[in-house]
Amino acid sequence: MKKVRTRYAPSPTGFMHVGNLRSAIFEYLIAKHNDGDFILRIEDTDQARKVEGAVEFIYETCHLCGLDFDEGPNNPGAYGPYTQSERLDIYNKYAHELVEKGEAYYCFCTEKRLEELRYQAELEKRAFQYDGYCKNLTKEQIEEKIRNGEKYVIRQRMPKEGISSYEDVVFGKIVVENKILEDQILLKSDGFPTYNFANVVDDHLMAITHVARGNEYLMSTPKYNLLYDAFGWEKPVYIHLPMVLGEDGQKLSKRNGDASFMDLYNDGYLPEGVVNYLVLLGWSPEGNEEIFTLDELIKIFDPKRISKSPAIFDIKKLNWVNAHYIKKLSIDKLYDITIPHLQKAYNIENKSEEWLRHLISIYQNHVSYGKEIVSLVSLFFNDDIKIEGEVKEFMESDSSIPSTLNVFREEIESIALWTVDNIVTAINNTKEKTGAKGKLLYMPIRIKVSGQMHGPELPDTIYLLGKETVIKRLYN
Ligand code: GLU
Question: Which terminal residue of the chain has fewer beta carbons within 10 Å of its beta carbon, N or C?
Answer without folding.
Answer: N
